[in-house]
Write a structure and sequence with these properties.
Layout: H1 9-16, H2 20-34, E1 39-49, H3 78-90, E2 95-100, H4 109-122, E3 127-131, H5 137-146, E4 150-152, H6 159-165, H7 171-184, E5 187-189, E6 192-194, H8 200-211, E7 219-224, H9 241-254, E8 259-262, H10 271-279, E9 284-287, H11 299-309, E10 312-313, H12 321-340
Parallel strand pairs: 1-2, 1-9, 1-10, 2-3, 3-4, 4-5, 6-7, 7-8, 8-9
Helix pairs in contact: 1-8, 2-9, 3-4, 5-7
Bound molecules: S-adenosylmethionine, 6-(5-methyl-2-OXO-imidazolidin-4-yl)-hexanoic acid and iron/sulfur cluster.
């Protein structure tokens, strides 16, 4: 079964606009062809440097220019981050993602500390992910050498809608960072947000950009806007389940091998609505009582949901390099053992 990177906008539009039950059925079918549909990746987020961000992303509670009640904090101490990562692991998370409210990564002491955190969490056998804003290829390489597994950098919306949402950087900047990450061989995590006032065409355009990258992002987060008081988008209407299903289902069909993550917005969803999203091909969630600064369902609530729906958590490193290396180690150990016997 081939994975296509040559989708046209009209093909994607036709999928996105299918009768909703046909769309869910087709997405569920594709999901079963490519993946274990009862397996869900459990990721945990931690904001290691909160607030005070110079950017003007109009959805974001961490932008310094909006009065959202999220104040600029100092970076968390490394030992506190490692303790939180180990608690996340005990709670079943296999990916730990650290976020910083930065425009871009700078080669300073704070970056050195992030490198230490990456090393520490990698040693716990979890997939480590970071979302730190724009970075150069050299910085991406430094993270990779420290044991980073994935880098998150969302396109957020379509190129044509971007200026309505963010003016302090360009769409091209986002794409350049994704390219820098891809070149180092890190796993790429990139998706977007719905509910920013974009049209269905804008949504299709964003999906088109993601699905026509030279290689699909290994993870595609689909966030529903969490409208935060004080941001320019505080009055936005909550996105409906039908809009989430269309985004998730279309993403699943056009990027069948990727992890499609039901990301921000779960706090407002019922278990039935989330089940429908898993049916439509969602294969990953953020777990833990907080996303970066906003609430997320309680860990026990999610455990009950997994039990109820018969879902099981995905193992770490399943899709990636570490597993192959691990296999290689087993092989070479066996060979050595055989050679020595
Ligand atoms: N500063 C870095 C950046 O922008 O790439 C990393 C952290 S930033 C908070 C990571 C992502 O969180 C954003 O790209 C956006 O997709 C998502 N996000 C931020 N605020 C959100 C909100 N209110 N609702 C949904 N998603 C949000
Ligand atoms: C992603 O796509 N969503 C996450 C993670 N990647 C970094 C962030 C959601 C943030 C929601 C608002 C907040 O909690 O601050
Ligand atoms: Fe800053 Fe990232 Fe929030 Fe934009 S999304 S304001 S870059 S923390």
């Amino acid at each position: 079964m081939d994975i296509r990177n040559n989708w046209t906008k009209s093909e994607i539009e036709a999928i996105y606009n299918m009768p909703i039950l046909d769309l869910v059925y087709r997405a569920a079918t594709v999901h079963r062809q490519y993946n274990d549909a009862n397996e869900v990746q459990v990721c945990t987020l931690l904001s290691v440097k909160t607030g005070g961000c110079p950017e003007d992303c109009s959805y974001c509670p961490q932008a310094a220019r909006y009065n959202t009640g999220v104040d600029a904090e100092r970076m968390l101490p490394t030992d506190e981050v490692l303790t939180k990562a180990s608690i996340a692991k005990q709670n079943g998370a296999t990916r730990f993602c650290m976020g910083a409210a930065w425009r871009n990564v700078k080669n300073n002491k704070q970056f050195d500390r992030i490198i230490d955190m990456v090393k520490g969490i990698n040693a716990m056998d979890m997939e480590v992910c970071c979302t730190l804003g724009m970075l150069t290829q050299e910085q991406a390489q430094r993270l990779k050498d420290a044991g980073l597994y994935a880098y998150n950098h969302n396109l957020d919306t379509s190129e044509s809608h971007y200026e309505q949402i963010i003016t302090t950087r360009k769409y091209e900047d986002r794409l350049n960072t994704l390219e820098n990450v891809r070149k180092t061989g890190l796993s790429v995590c990139s998706g977007g947000i719905i509910g920013l006032g974009e049209t269905d065409t804008n949504r299709v355009e964003m999906l088109h950009t993601l699905a026509t990258l030279p290689q699909h992002p290994e993870s595609v987060p689909v966030n529903a806007l969490v409208s935060v008081k004080g941001t320019p988008l505080e009055e936005q209407k909550r996105v409906s389940i039908w809009e989430m299903l269309r985004m998730i289902g279309t993403a699943r069909i056009i990027m069948p091998g990727s992890q499609i993550r039901l990301s921000a917005g779960r706090q407002e969803m019922t278990v039935t609505e989330q089940a429908f999203c898993f049916m439509a091909g969602a294969s990953s969630i953020f777990a833990g009582e907080k996303l970066l600064t906003t609430p997320n369902p309680d860990v026990n609530q999610d455990k009950m949901m997994f039990d109820l729906l018969g879902l099981h958590p995905r193992a770490a490193f399943k899709g990636g390099e570490r597993e192959r290396f691990a296999e290689a180690f087993v092989d070479s150990d066996t060979n050595t053992a055989e050679a020595n016997s």
